[in-house]
Backbone:
């Protein structure tokens, strides 16, 4: 008969073995922090704090992005980071009186061919509505290479914010230089649950003329969707996107607004719902619910995205949608014990040339207890193959104080060598976010 001491030793060995396997999966790639925000200290973190959006690269390898907080006025910045890790603040928001230049940027930037940057802020601007957006309804801005900011459009310029308000996603260009994007709120339709409009898709000319292409909740109970989260073009000039709420299925935790949709919008403004989430019913919404970010195409015209909740374990999904509207769940998060495979994806995906998908989750991963999530983990970077196999490339917060970063909530980006770059909202040397690099 085995004695108790042997049993204890054997159990401990098994625990260490399992833990080692988890670490091996979590550290399949090498992570390095390129910059930790709030390095300049002070109450406002003048170099920026808490980035919600990913970075974009110029041809010289410099990275550009935004932080939602920090800066000279505490309302966010646009920054540049050189390949050697030197950070420069290109613009401090709320430089103008009453934040007429915008405040709290939280969406991806985009370059034009001349090197100018374009983006949105979630609030600020000239137009303030007492009951809707008392600190401004957001702007679309341009930033020159020299750091001069130009507000191209102030939302809620029209009565009742018919032109939109509160943009939370970035903008995209067409071939003529027009910008397209979405706002969470505003528009002429409101079913009582959207709070001052259910959002719009807009077009903005180079001269700053805004045209609303579609106002959501035009159909009863928002069958057409509500609260859009960005758009992407197909090769024919049609726009595709998601809405957080709305659709035909009302089995979601936020009430009767619906569980979100994937939509198509033609150049003439005709909207078609390609898929309404929670179509399979049940408490879990196993096909996903609440898509909280934009989409990405593959070469065959299929769409890919994430939902924050739903799936087999109610903690989010990665999904594929064919051009005919057939949805397939590629991965339901929290499939592994303690959600070591990730939990709650809040951002869009990117793909490589082999068709692998890459993204992040806000929670989950090998938890080291430093994230104040009640043991939910600090987030992961994941990869999903065309065969639907999910691999965790990195699990955040193995270091004391999460100096490697925590809570990634932004889209990843590749460099020319195949390295992945991203940002975390928290963690880093000063717990105000970090820019990281993953190398194979």
Residues:
């Amino acid at each position: 008969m085995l004695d108790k001491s042997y049993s204890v030793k054997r159990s401990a060995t098994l625990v260490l073995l399992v833990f080692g396997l988890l670490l091996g999966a979590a550290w399949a790639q090498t992570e390095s922090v390129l910059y930790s925000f709030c390095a300049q200290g002070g109450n406002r973190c003048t170099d920026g704090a808490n980035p919600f959006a990913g970075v974009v690269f110029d041809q010289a390898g410099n990275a550009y992005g935004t932080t939602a907080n920090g800066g000279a006025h505490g309302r966010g910045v646009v920054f540049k980071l050189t390949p050697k890790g030197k950070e420069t603040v290109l613009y401090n928001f709320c430089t103008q009186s009453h934040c007429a230049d915008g405040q709290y940027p939280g969406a991806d930037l985009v370059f034009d061919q001349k090197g100018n940057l374009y983006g949105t802020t979630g609030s600020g601007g000239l137009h303030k509505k007492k009951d809707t957006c008392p600190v401004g309804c957001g702007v679309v801005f341009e930033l020159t290479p020299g750091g001069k900011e130009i507000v191209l459009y102030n939302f809620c310029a029209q009565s009742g914010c018919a032109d939109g308000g509160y943009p939370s996603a970035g903008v995209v260009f067409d071939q003529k230089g027009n910008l397209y994007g979405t706002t969470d709120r505003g528009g002429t339709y409101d079913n009582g649950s959207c709070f001052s409009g259910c959002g719009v898709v807009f077009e903005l000319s180079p001269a700053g003329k805004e045209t609303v292409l579609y106002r959501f909740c035009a159909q009863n109970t928002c069958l057409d969707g509500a609260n859009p989260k960005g758009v992407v073009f197909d090769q024919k000039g049609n726009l595709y996107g998601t809405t957080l709420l709305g659709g035909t299925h009302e089995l979601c935790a936020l009430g009767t607004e619906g569980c979100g949709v994937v939509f198509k919008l033609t150049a003439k403004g005709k909207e078609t719902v390609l898929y309404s989430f929670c179509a399979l019913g049940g408490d879990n919404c196993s096909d996903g619910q609440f898509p909280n970010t934009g989409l990405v195409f593959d070469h065959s015209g299929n769409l890919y995205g994430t939902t924050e909740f739903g799936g087999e374990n109610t903690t989010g999904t990665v999904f594929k949608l064919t051009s005919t509207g057939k949805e397939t769940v590629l991965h339901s998060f929290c499939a592994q014990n303690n959600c070591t495979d990730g939990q709650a994806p809040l951002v869009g995906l990117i793909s490589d040339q082999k068709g692998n998908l890459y993204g992040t989750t806000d929670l989950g991963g090998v938890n080291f207890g430093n994230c104040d999530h009640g043991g939910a983990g600090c987030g992961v970077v994941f990869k999903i193959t065309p065969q639907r196999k999910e691999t965790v490339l990195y699990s955040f917060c193995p270091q004391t104080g999460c100096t490697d970063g925590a809570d990634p909530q932004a889209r990843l980006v590749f460099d020319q060598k195949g390295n992945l770059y991203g940002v975390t909202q928290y963690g880093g040397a000063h717990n105000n976010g970090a820019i990281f690099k993953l190398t194979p």
Q: What stands out?
A: The longest strand covers residues 226-233. The first helix runs from residue 4 to 26. DSSP finds one helix and 28 strands in the chain.
